[in-house]
Amino acid sequence: MIDAHSHVLSIAAGEVEKRRFNRMSKKIIAHFTDAHLGQKLVMGRGIEKDKMHYEHEPAEHQENLRQVLDDIARKGISNIIFGGDIGSSESVPRFFEILKAYPFAPSLLLGNHDAYADVTKYSRGDSNALTGKMCFSQDDGFFRSVFLDTSDNTVGDNQLTWLRHQADGASKIALFLHHPILEVDTPLERAGATLRDRDKLRMLLNGLPCEVWAFCGHYHMDDEVWEANIRQFVTPAVSYQIVKQAERVEVETGRVGYRVLEIDEGEIRTEVVMLDRTYHGGAKNS
């Protein structure tokens, strides 16, 4: 039985969270990434073809995803951006089924474990700027938000050309993509998990006469680095975390995370939210 006093305290705490993240004149966005639904990590086999190794486990990480989405909803945030790597092909319908249970306005981009054909069955592929690529842009008056598709571990010349045009007239760009652009001191860099043409992308961005705030995932960790006009933020994963400073790739499974962005008249403030996992059992269906 639920204690009435505890229930009142819970509601009050929720209202405090909503007031904190819902202020007039600010756009609040939750950036979450790397759900890896249906993918159980297999350690000790290294990285091949730019990917970690996974075994198919249908319910893997579903509870992690719900925990993150519950926390975002509790804060009263409605605008969300998923940064790629839904998981196995078989888990794509389940991902969208879980997402639709929440009152969110989602934007979605692809990671290296995603396939355009799988995801566009459920997402708005007709709004993409290039055929076969989930790339698009939005302009809110203060920032131009640009979304890139790096699902084949590259940006590619067509997207680079398109990105250059999107930068015309922009004073600040919020760039969302799955892979980091700038180097991160982590074993994943040394293992070969980087974006293949990131040097070309970095050179293009460095040549722009505007600030670029890049938000990415892929590395399953919290990181921030600044180079010239590029400020890069790596968002922790929904599925599991990777230890940033280690001799080899080490995994932490006890916490899940996401990032909150506050956009207020041309300024961005960001903070990482880390949560202790509330479910630690094996595969669980619901």
Task: Explain what this protein looks like in three dimensions.
- With 286 residues, the chain is α/β, with parallel strands linked by helices.
- It has a single domain (26-276), classed as 4-Layer Sandwich (Purple Acid Phosphatase, chain A, domain 2).
- The protein has helices spanning 4-21, 62-74, 92-99, 116-119, 157-166, 187-191, 198-206, and strands at 27-32, 39-41, 54-56, 79-82, 105-108, 136-139, 144-147, 172-176, 211-216, 223-227, 230-234, 241-242, 251-252, 255-264, 267-276.
- Mean pLDDT is 87; it is low at 1-13 and 281-286.
List keywords for this structure.
Purple Acid Phosphatase, chain A, domain 2, 286 residues, disordered C terminus, five-stranded mixed sheet, 26% strand, 7 helices, alpha/beta, six-stranded mixed sheet
Short description:
By secondary structure, the protein is an alpha/beta fold. Helix content is 23%, strand content 26%.
- pLDDT < 50 runs, ≥5 residues: 1-13, 281-286
CATH architecture: 4-Layer Sandwich
Instruction: Give the C-alpha Rg.
Output: 19 Å
Helix/strand/pairing class, anyone? alpha/beta
What is the string of helix and strand elements? Answer: HEEEHEHEHEEHEHHEEEEEEE
Q: Mean of residue pLDDT?
A: 87
* Level-1 CATH class name: Alpha Beta
For the sheet with most strands, the description reads:
6 strands, mixed
* Shape annotation: globular
* Number of E-state strands: 15
Helix-residue proportion: 10-25%
Give the end-to-end Cα distance, rounded to a whole number of Å.
22 Å
Which range does the strand content fall in? 25-35%
Please count the helical segments: 7
**Strand order across the largest sheet:** 6-7-8-9-11-10
How many individual domains?
A: 1
CATH superfamily: Metallo-dependent phosphatases
